[in-house]
Design brief:
Elements: E1 4-7, H1 11-21, E2 26-31, H2 35-38, H3 41-49, E3 53-57, H4 66-76, E4 84-89, H5 91-103, H6 111-115, E5 127-131, E6 143-148, E7 151-156, E8 164-167, H7 177-196, H8 202-224, H9 228-248, H10 252-264, H11 268-284, H12 297-310, H13 316-329, H14 344-354, H15 369-377
Parallel strand pairs: 1-8, 2-3, 2-4, 4-5, 5-8
Antiparallel strand pairs: 6-7
The structure holds zinc ion (ZN).
């Protein structure tokens, strides 16, 4: 897997150079609907794309649906071929670009690959990813999320890692506050989950540790005051967290969070932000019997203490509290009942849809349905 990345407010020049080097004449441009203009991306890319044939695609939902991918593909496949895909936007926009590349030559896109075992053969068209949130880190990963109905799938292929990712911190300045808060929390949580993942390596932990420290230091300032230096550090933290989960994947909080997003419409970063403080405590109670990390219970506990120290806390309990205080400080609620999770039936529905033994098996401590129920009740 090979990716070049560039971080800086002069990233547009780096993109222009890349397009020149590849002799690009036609561009499939994947963007958000209004964020493309409001973030300043349109102004920045305008000069870069001058004189090229450009088709812009922005008519799809947040949390990409299979039907959107099929509709877009059946339309762009009738066009003259494109030299490159450029995606600029939040995690969903970047995922749509990766999904288009992934399913470009599929006979029965998404459904055929997910349900009928047709192999995934991504197109080799180059992809530039420019995140406008900090963020999902999607610009640094080789997987993408797609929904068929309410069912969430994650596809993975080395070839959908964007060839060039360009991080332009000034794009974050105009993000609505709730989006900045939720996406920033996602970056922090992805770094934390990567750090405690049973697939962590020395390399992934080094990257995740830097992401945790940067996000912890700058999240609040980036959301509340938009100080340029804080935006720069959050942009970097988000990219690093993406690089870290590209190695380890995320763990139980992410697996469980999708039910909160699908059924209650809770923003993804807010959902993981609620779950990670609870899972920090849950994982810390790991025993030899339910430890899933081959490095053992003691090792897992050490990693969780490392995380707590990076959050400036002396122990797990205070780190969990500090994470919840951070949620409040950036304007995100800390209880599930405000979004309508009030009864045992609600909890049943979340457990039914958020509990997939396979998807939680890289969490350092085994999760059972009964334990998940208990953990979710703590959040009501
Ligand atoms: Zn996430």
């Amino acid at each position: 897997m090979n990716q070049t990345s560039y971080i800086g407010n002069d990233g547009w020049d780096a993109i222009a150079q890349f397009l020149d080097d590849q002799d690009v004449r036609s561009v499939l441009l994947v963007t958000g609907r209004s964020s493309y203009t409001s973030s300043g991306a349109e102004a920045g890319l305008g000069g870069v794309l001058k004189g090229k044939r450009v088709r812009r695609v922005s008519d799809f939902d947040t949390n990409p649906k299979g039907k959107d991918i099929r509709r877009i593909l059946s339309s762009v496949l009738n066009d003259e071929p494109y030299d490159i895909i450029i995606a600029v936007g939040g995690g969903s926009v970047l995922d749509v670009a990766k999904l288009l590349k992934a399913f470009w030559s599929s006979e029965n896109p998404v459904i055929g690959n997910l349900y009928h075992e047709e192999p995934l053969v991504p197109d080799d068209i180059p992809l530039i990813a420019i995140p406008s949130t900090a963020g999902s880190g999607s610009e640094a990963t080789h997987f993408a999320v797609v929904y068929e109905g309410k069912k969430k799938f994650s596809i993975a292929h080395e070839a959908i890692l964007p060839n060039f990712s360009v991080i332009i911190p000034s794009l974050l300045a105009s993000l609505p506050r709730s989006v900045a808060a939720a996406s920033g929390m996602d970056a922090l949580c992805q770094a934390i989950e990567s750090y405690w993942s049973i697939f962590s390596t020395e390399e992934s932990q080094k990257i995740a540790a830097e992401a945790i420290s940067l996000a912890w230091k700058s999240l609040e300032k980036a959301v509340l005051s938009r100080a340029p230096h804080a935006l720069e550090e959050m942009a970097k933290a988000s990219h690093l967290a993406g690089k870290a989960i590209n190695i380890t994947k995320t763990t139980a909080p992410h697996a469980v969070s999708y039910a909160l997003t699908s059924f209650y419409g809770l923003q993804h970063g807010h959902a993981v932000g609620l779950l990670v403080p609870e899972f920090l405590k849950y994982n810390a109670a790991v025993t030899e019997d339910d430890c899933l990390d081959h490095r053992g219970k003691g090792w897992v506990q050490e990693q969780l203490m490392d995380i707590s120290h990076r959050l400036g806390c002396p122990n797990i309990e205070s780190a969990s509290d500090a994470l919840k205080s951070k949620l409040r400080a950036i304007g995100l609620g800390t209880s599930l009942d405000v979004i309508g999770v009030k009864s045992n039936e609600d909890i049943d529905r979340l457990v039914e849809n958020g509990f997939n033994p396979q998807r939680v098996n890289n969490n350092p401590r085994r999760l059972t349905e009964a334990e998940l129920r208990k953990l979710l009740r703590n959040l009501m």
